[in-house]
């Protein structure tokens, strides 16, 4: 039962959870059968059902993504790739666009209020941008089953990371490393909860650059965005305060996803009929999710997202292995 | 209490350009998609045919439809599906516009390290956008 002054409404969370799970279960039970037969027998006049379903699913993904603290791309690719009749190439292209559009929309306010730091973002984004093109190129060249299987393994790995990753609100960085000192990467942000200005600096910058090369590669390869890896990398490895890590992750994502998105666009792997309803649905859902942030119990939503990722990861893996096609 | 510490001027400049370029991209994205969905412009590939095609891989899709890679869509703005790629390209180009906008700020403050990082980032994005990696 909710504490009167807690600010959260667990009952509402559970209602939303139940509604979402029922909708999702109904969709899943109908979609694979329909998807399997959709291509040969689809009514030509009913083409609009899939983009509409995509919009609705992305709307709900957007609602839960914000309270769960994950980007939309990591939910979008396995779920849409697993249960819609679109080829994974187009799903990954749309996933990158979804991740990029969300990051772009959040960017201005994060930069203005100091929750994102451009000097921190730029070198890491450069590393991630270069490798994300390599990831995109490899992703479009590899056989479908290999990409699908690798995606399933990656999604299950992300699920484990979400369950096990620690967080440090204000990591202790005794001494900045020589690289971050030379680049002038440090800052002060205003913590609304304590009402204090908190100064921060970073360490292990070379290791961070290597990590972001790997993250960018995976983002480009699978189209899943990279917020799930950016935030722990900035926070736990480089010692960036959690809020600044989350904000700066968005800036890095906007630049790294952009380079991979161009590659998918140039190769015809972005279909507007898939990408645009996804972006619009996710953006509207995310706005509602941001408003619900104060009244929903974040841990319930987070557990729901972990369960969905686990299910979608298993589905993607089995699809890649040809066991559940 | 508001913080007395303001972000670097180039960060605020980046934020302003990002706000307006993203807004423009979203407006064009939605407007062109509405035009496409309602059939106000003819499409290269009729909407009714898409369910037979969207299950193909990107390379199979290009072969089946005779679609060209790269920037060919830009020269077919009279077609609804090509036009709706314009908003996607605008959003993908937002970062380039923002970085180009802050480069003079770094030059003015003689911060040559970040000027170099910005130059490299713009180069990566422009080369990717150019289709160079598609051809090679």
Automatic annotation (TrEMBL), chain A:
Its main location: membrane. The keyword Methyltransferase does not apply. It is a multi-pass membrane protein. It is found in: Cell membrane. One of its GO terms (cellular component) is plasma membrane. The keyword Transmembrane helix applies. The chain crosses the membrane at residues 45-63, 70-88, 94-111, 118-140, 146-165, 209-229, 269-288, 300-318. Residues 1-35 form the signal peptide. Keywords: Cell membrane, Membrane, Signal, Transmembrane, Transmembrane helix, Transport. Belongs to the 4-toluene sulfonate uptake permease (TSUP) (TC 2.A.102) family. This is Probable membrane transporter protein. It comes from Candidatus Gallionella acididurans.
UniProtKB/TrEMBL annotation, chain B:
This is DUF1634 domain-containing protein. The chain crosses the membrane at residues 12-38, 83-102, 114-135. It comes from the Bacteria. Keywords: Membrane, Transmembrane, Transmembrane helix. The keyword Transmembrane applies. The lineage of its organism: Bacteria, Pseudomonadati, Pseudomonadota, Betaproteobacteria, Nitrosomonadales.
């Amino acid at each position: 039962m909710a504490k009167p002054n807690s600010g959260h409404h667990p009952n509402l969370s559970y209602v939303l959870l139940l509604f979402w799970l029922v909708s999702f279960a109904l969709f899943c039970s109908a979609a694979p059968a329909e998807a399997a037969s959709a291509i040969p027998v689809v009514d030509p006049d009913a083409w609009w059902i899939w983009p509409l379903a995509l919009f609705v699913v992305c709307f709900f993904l957007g609602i839960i993504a914000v309270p769960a603290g994950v980007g939309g791309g990591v939910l979008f690719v396995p779920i849409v790739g697993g249960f819609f009749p679109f080829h994974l190439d187009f799903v990954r292209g749309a996933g990158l666009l979804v991740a990029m559009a969300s990051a772009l929309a959040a960017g201005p306010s994060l930069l203005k209020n100091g929750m994102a730091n451009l000097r921190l973002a730029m070198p890491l984004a450069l590393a991630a941008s270069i490798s994300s093109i390599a990831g995109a190129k490899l992703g479009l060249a590899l056989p479908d089953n290999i990409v699908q299987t690798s995606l399933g393994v990656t999604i299950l790995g992300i699920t484990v990371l979400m369950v096990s990753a620690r967080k440090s609100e204000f990591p202790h960085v005794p001494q900045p490393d020589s690289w971050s000192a030379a680049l002038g990467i440090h800052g002060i942000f205003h913590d609304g909860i304590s009402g204090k200005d908190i100064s921060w600096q970073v360490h292990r910058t070379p290791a961070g650059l290597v990590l972001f090369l790997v993250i960018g590669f995976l983002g480009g390869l699978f189209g899943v965005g990279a917020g799930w890896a950016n935030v722990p990398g900035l926070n736990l490895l480089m010692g960036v305060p959690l809020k600044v890590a989350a904000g700066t992750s968005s800036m890095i994502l906007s630049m790294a996803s952009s380079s991979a998105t161009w590659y998918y666009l140039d190769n015809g792997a972005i279909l507007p009929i898939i990408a645009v309803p996804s972006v619009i649905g996710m953006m509207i859902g995310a706005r509602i999710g941001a408003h619900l942030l104060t009244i929903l119990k974040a841990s319930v939503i987070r557990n729901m997202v972990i369960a969905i990722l686990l299910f979608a990861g298993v589905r993607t893996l089995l699809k890649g292995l040809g066991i559940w096609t | 209490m508001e913080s007395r510490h303001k972000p670097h001027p180039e960060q605020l400049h980046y934020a302003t350009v990002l706000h307006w370029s993203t807004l423009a991209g979203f407006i064009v994205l939605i407007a062109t998609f509405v035009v496409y969905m309602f059939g106000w412009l003819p499409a290269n590939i009729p909407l009714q045919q898409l369910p037979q095609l969207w299950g193909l891989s990107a390379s199979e899709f290009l072969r089946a439809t005779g679609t060209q890679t790269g920037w060919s869509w830009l020269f077919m703005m009279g077609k609804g599906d090509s036009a709706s790629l314009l908003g996607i390209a605008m959003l993908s180009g937002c970062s380039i516009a923002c970085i180009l906008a802050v480069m003079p700020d770094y030059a003015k403050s003689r911060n040559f390290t970040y000027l170099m990082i910005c130059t490299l980032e713009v180069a990566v994005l422009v080369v990717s956008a150019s289709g160079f990696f598609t051809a090679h």
